[in-house]
Amino acid sequence: RYFHFCKLPGRVMGIRLLRFTSVVIIVLLLVAGALTALLPNIKDDKLPNLRREPKPQSQSALDSFTLIMQTYNRTDLLLKLLNHYQAIPNLHKVIVVWNNIGEKTPEEMWNSLGPHPVPVVFKVQSVNRMRNRLQNFPELETKAVLMMDDDTLVSAHDLAFAFSVWQQFPEHIVGFVPRKHISTPSGVYSYGSFELQNPGFGNGDQYSMVLIGAAFFHSGYLEDFQRQPEAVYALIDETQNCDDIAMNFLVAKRTGKPSGVFVKPVDIRNLEKDTNSGYSGMWHRAEHLLQRSYCVNKLVSIYDGMPLKYSNIMISQFGFPNYANHKNKM
Amino acid sequence: RYFHFCKLPGRVMGIRLLRFTSVVIIVLLLVAGALTALLPNIKDDKLPNLRREPKPQSQSALDSFTLIMQTYNRTDLLLKLLNHYQAIPNLHKVIVVWNNIGEKTPEEMWNSLGPHPVPVVFKVQSVNRMRNRLQNFPELETKAVLMMDDDTLVSAHDLAFAFSVWQQFPEHIVGFVPRKHISTPSGVYSYGSFELQNPGFGNGDQYSMVLIGAAFFHSGYLEDFQRQPEAVYALIDETQNCDDIAMNFLVAKRTGKPSGVFVKPVDIRNLEKDTNSGYSGMWHRAEHLLQRSYCVNKLVSIYDGMPLKYSNIMISQFGFPNYANHKNKM
């Protein structure tokens, strides 16, 4: 007799079982498929970043900035500030310019206390120079730089707002500390703040510089700084001061406009008194302000003219912190 | 004998006299020339404007602005305000848009109380329309327009500063009254001020319009306004409202940026309560705000999209009125 599967009880049972099993398997696969289709949506709600952006950097280099912080003899403040600044919105990376020559960086300790929101790079320097922070660091990937002194705390709200302002004024130094120069009939310039006379262009005061120790500026200016006359480097090295004044000259000369845009900070603090190192900043030296006036005049001679321009624009954030901070009597 | 002039005593005397006279004349001319060269310098110090600019207008059309003020049923306020505004720095001319149909303008009285610092033109209208003030007046010579409501007093200091800000942002409406629209899940927009929820882009509030009843803008936008779709005119005429919202739509669409830049006024007052006419402004009508929300939605349909963009930039004057108004705790 020929082998017909229908007639074979054992095999018939086997086939039915096979069919049944196949159906069960297909049904299970469909159910599994359905579940898989549902599952990513739940995952999306919970962990969007992990799914979408590459793991180490969650910020596109176009919409974020690099914090460059130079440090000397205030590692306790540095670490306190790093805890704060590492979590600022739109931060891409931190570059710490390590001016503590011969001393180990806190990199090991930093790593042992990870993970951290963004990469932090410790750039060990060979000489303790003020202008070390103005190098064109290869680690710098973003268009924007946020430069902070290692004793200055600016709130995240202020930084987020100032960054958005910088994005609207990318060729300017957008920051929190305005200063000015004034002319005198002798032609000699003097440097100062609001305690100096107003420059006399209409009502009120004017500023002609925004200090880079708490400011956003375009990373291209670091490139430009590498091409400054030797005399500029010599001046900064001689005074261990004035790198910020030099940057304002550079920007003003380049743009033909006021170098800075002043954003009025809501919460900016100097943590100097909180350091255990006993080291107080350069600006406490007796000659500090006189040096800065000296630098202004030297730079005018190097630039063969005064490129700094005045501005009286003061920017604040509409409706923050007080949602009616623009209300008027009308 | 031949006629030789050397031999004729009378003629010789005549020639010597002629030579002498010529020398005297030449010397006098040289002295006069020297004096003329000296004279302008002295004149310069004392009366620069009269020497350089044509007499009736002492403001160049490039560095000055035209005030356009529409008026209806509040001539007492108009005249009070004109006395104030006629003396604002950098004002070129005033154009009064006379919406009091059939009523004589106060031109005679105005002239009898002259001279005035600038020319004032009374433009008699044939129909009382809100959008009359948005005509492209032939008398308009300046790039900048200052538009003011006929019940609003802004200090000269505020106006001088805001004009300088407009010169830095000439494609924007630079003014003192910010407003916003908000979206709702239904897609229907609503109009309001800070009492409405924040639009939700980061911290704080945002504005998407600056009202033209107290603002500087480029006179080119009046030209552009003449080319708006009929539906826009119909909307403004139907509501006797919303010409300012329409202008913000126009500017935002044109620039692709936020239409306005808000300058926080130090001293802005509504003089409405001071009028003897008993007439109170349109904004007291019960339906005023609802109309404005209605206008926003109508304009979105006319524009086939929402061109308005948000901004949170609030500009104040550095060091004025308080010379240390930017001081911080650092």
From TrEMBL, chains A, B:
The answer to keyword Glycosyltransferase applying to this record is yes
Keyword match Transmembrane: yes
Q: Which controlled-vocabulary keywords does the entry list?
A: Disulfide bond, Glycoprotein, Glycosyltransferase, Manganese, Membrane, Metal-binding, Signal-anchor, Transferase, Transmembrane, Transmembrane helix
Tree of life domain: Eukaryota
Compartments where found? Endoplasmic reticulum membrane
Belongs to which family?
Answer: Belongs to the glycosyltransferase 47 family.
Q: What is this protein called?
A: Exostosin-like 2
